[in-house]
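Q: Could you write out the predicted structure for this multi-component system? I'm mainly interested in how the pieces pack against one another.
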Amino acid sequence: MTTPSRMPEPYGQGSGANLADILERVLDKGIVIAGDIRINLLDIELLTIKLRLIVASVDKAKEMGIDWWETDPALSSRARRDELTRENAELRERLARLEELEPSRAQEKEAP
Amino acid sequence: MTGLRYVYAVCRPFGTPLQSQLTGVAGDPPRALNHHGLVAVVSHVPERDFAEEPLRAHLEDLDWLTETARAHQGVIDALTTVTTPLPLRLGTVFRDDSGVRTMIEAREEDFRRTLERLEGRVEWGVKVYAESEPQESAQPAQKAATGRDYLRQRRMQTRSHEEMWQKAESFANRLHEKLSAFAEDSRLHPPQNPALSKATGRNVLNAAYLVSRAHSEEFVEMVDRTKGEVPGMRVELTGPWAAYSFAGEAT
């Protein structure tokens, strides 16, 4: 069998290939052509959307492009930082207020 | 011969025969249908499974879908070793050969243009996983004795988490920049859900790169070198795939 020259061995493919990878490509990529069995037109789009729910979660699927992870607090340090900074500031403020109100008790607590 | 025609891909004529033991969707070996100087790779599929209604029902069945998707990919994969196929999406079915011929005639220009663009190129998939949800497991070892201790611990936790994501983000960004500068084209795909991919860690980069066969070896080495570069980051390479991610935009 002729194999194109200088082609590295397949990586992570063949029978052991990740199902998510295969479905991602076979369902979602490649060209869409109107077969004369009608399902190929709209239904494959619907199916793709439905399966995207499994292959990727919808909120992430909506965000394409280089910055798709930036708005997700679970993924983005920036979004996370904002949330935690706010939480931290709030807690610090509350503690300061408490210490102000009850100086003696705060002193007591600081002792080992 | 009865049955419907399932189409896998459109290619330019290729001299090399496909592997003789190759079976396609529904177990029928694929064959080449030549028309207008193009080749549609087709196989026969039974009406009871692939007519519109049963196909619609089957597509909802993950087991059936898995088997069919693997068979479809198997044929595309075999084609990729002998030519540059233009992969069609799963489930492209025609009533008979003349339906396939009509389709080729209608899209002839598109096919030629896209085949020209993709000739001799393959797709590589690169994914980056952040291995751990760090410090989440290393929760406060001892209970905070005072409010101040609690805050200190909380701050430290936040900081290491923040560092972790910053690290993942910048690693993924850097890698993508480097690889897309080398590749002819690239696409970012949504991260994969671990429920289906069964991969551990969080998928922070899921990209596809279009690389010529001649440069593929170099590309693979480039990706391999980044493995283990940053602790906690796992780089996964898949391919060579037919140029699925780059076949679509001709229309």
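A: Regarding packing and overall arrangement: Residues 183 and 211 of chain B are 5 Å apart (CA to CA).
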